[in-house]
Amino acid sequence: MLFIIVTAVAFLNLNNLINSNKDFISTQIEQSFGRKITIGEINTGFKEGLGISLEDVSISDDKSFSKNAFIRARDIQINVEISPLLNKKLKINKLIVNEPIINIIKNKKGEYNFESLGSDKHSYKNKKAETSEKNNDFSLLASSIAIDDGQINYINKKNETELRIQNIDLQIEDLGTDREDQNSIVGRVSSLEASIGQYELQDLRTRFNLGGESLKIEDLSLRAYGGTVKANVGYGLGKNSNFTLVSTVRDLNLQSFLESLNPQDAKNIQGKANLDINVFGHGKNWEEIKTTLKGTSKAEIEDGAVLGINIADQVLKGITGISGLTFLISQETKDKYPQVFTEQDTEFEQVKSSFIIDKGKMETKDLIVLSKDYSITGKGWINLDGKSKLKSLLTLSKEFSKDLVADIADLKYISNSQNQVEIPFMLSGSLPKPKVKPDIAYLSGQLQKSGIRNIIDRLTSDPDDEQEKNDRTQTDDVPKKRLDEKILDEFKDLF
Length: 495
Description:
Largest sheet: 20 strands, mixed
Structural class: alpha+beta
Shape: elongated
Number of helices: 13
Strand content: 35-45%
Helix content: 25-40%
């Protein structure tokens, strides 16, 4: 009962203060912001507590940045403490800004348009200190600030970039002048649906700590392009712009993601990506960042394809230049393996690799591509501009190898112990359409060695072997040659 009476008295006092001091309140609000402000209506508000409701609010920008509004809001509620109202004084504990459009600008000097909030000559931080010292009866310096369903437009004139965050809910807490750390701002951001530039995001949630010359983004989570992202980020706001990023990405639709960046890139690769990233570096733009980037990453892409190039087909076509190898594949085999001989893309079930990132390059020793009819392993590097050099090995499946050997018998000489045809090759050039070149010298050497072994087998064969007797019967009509002529002819066939 006592609480109801106290609240009623506070409400009446607040209502009287508003009705009799509307012009004074408007002037005080304007002076607190240090900007020109227009307000449609001033009433008593009740959202999340007792307060003053300012409707249809527009706050001008710093004239040195823009002639447009810094903030436009449907309404702003200024929640006040009850006990000071009993003495007809205002003490604000929270600002609630509903449906605002906030325009943040960074000029070419690296200065922000919000730095002059509070006065024309003093920053918000310094204004807090002045207010605390003077014990002013009216100030908009609240202990917490909330933004509901807002939009933030960010323009960086220093590097000519723009950013837009829509449907954002923001909580900035513990801004009281009596707190221990006056140089940091701690808060939470959430949004069911948001767009940051060209990126479409859902269920965005994070905590942040802005203090001194550093920004920490912690426990960031969001959904985007069919997948999920979790991350922790540290970013330096000083001269060096140091940053750290630890992130996990799961089930990201690569084609949709790349299409949002550049529709042309969406024609290069598709699949579901899983990424683990742990990197650090510094720089104010990508050109600076990529030369300093260091760390590790793991990548896994499932059920995808590299579009516009069929790596297996190019490797097989490339070995037609080997001397002594008649590379004639039957139409039956080609029809049986359309993924290799007909498709224009490199389709795969899984691509996996881990990378060490340093000096603009990603080095790998465990790249593996798994497909229905073959696998590819590789080691080498890919730089951050897309150029690559990977020493690779194409290993055909047992069934595919058997069918190819039936067409081309000499391929058995480049098969492994599991009777799988293996073809080493070099993948180099710009991704996603690199050059593919089989290791002809190695393959020729293997065929030569196998040919020599074949000669030795013939020279050391058992004349009583029934199979060999049958073979000799087939050549009875052929004139006999001296042993040295036979060896010479066999070696000639190798070259």
